Amino acid sequence: MADLFGTLTSKQKEKWMKNFTIALLTLLFLGTPALASDAVLESYIQNYGYDARLEMKVSSKKVLDLLEDGKAVLVDIRFKEEQEAWGPSFALKIPLNELPARLNELPKDKIIVTACPHKDRAIIAMTYLRSKGIPARYLTDGLIGLVENLRGDAAMYFLKLLREQK
């Protein structure tokens, strides 16, 4: 180890030790799921910066592009009654209070975008998913904003592309 550290600057040593410590603590806590979640969330918060702030958000215009390209799944986390009353037919419907029990329904190969009418519950869901190591995002303008972007020809075009993906 002395040889490795001999070639690093003090700032590089500090960063290496910080990353090593985070990795070690995460591995130690993996045996206890609740602690692992806490460690992942704690690490996310400790490393939170402007890039993370931008990366956790997605606008309805961008999410439509991601959905059209098959790169994302929209998760409607509203209550069942809200989902039954109205909402996007193409969204995966998992109410927020059912999310912990239904994590296995989320695809591992797509960006998970949580959504509710505005964004309060979507942020809670996104934070929970990130605590589980899932790099989720939330819909910044909510389902209300999504509806504004799916009108007329835009809706027809979007649904046509989704049908072609199947």
List keywords for this structure.
166 residues; alpha/beta; 10% strand; Rhodanese-like_dom_sf; Rhodanese-like_dom; Rhodanese domain-containing protein; GlpE_sulfurtransferase
Report on this structure.
The chain has 9 helices and 5 strands. 56% of the residues lie in helices and 10% in strands. The longest helix is centred in the N-terminal third of the chain and has 20 residues, at 10-29. α7 links the parallel β4 (111-115) and β5. A 5-stranded parallel beta sheet has the order 1-5-4-2-3. Residues 68-155 form the Rhodanese domain. It comes from Desulfuromonas versatilis.
How many β-strand runs? 5
Main sheet summary = 5 strands, parallel
Low-pLDDT windows of residues:
27-32
Terminal-residue CA separation: 53 Å
Integer-rounded radius of gyration = 19 Å
SSE string = HHHHEHEHEEHEHH
Which overall shape is indicated by the principal axes computed on the Cα atoms? Answer: elongated
Kindly name the structural category: alpha/beta
Trace the largest sheet across and list its strands: 1-5-4-2-3
Share in β-strands: 5-15%
Please bin the fraction of helical residues.
Answer: 55-70%
Q: Given the structure, what is the number of helices? A: 9
Average per-residue pLDDT, rounded, comes to: 84
Organism: Desulfuromonas versatilis
Protein name: Rhodanese domain-containing protein
InterPro entries: GlpE_sulfurtransferase, Rhodanese-like_dom, Rhodanese-like_dom_sf
Domain Rhodanese: 68-155
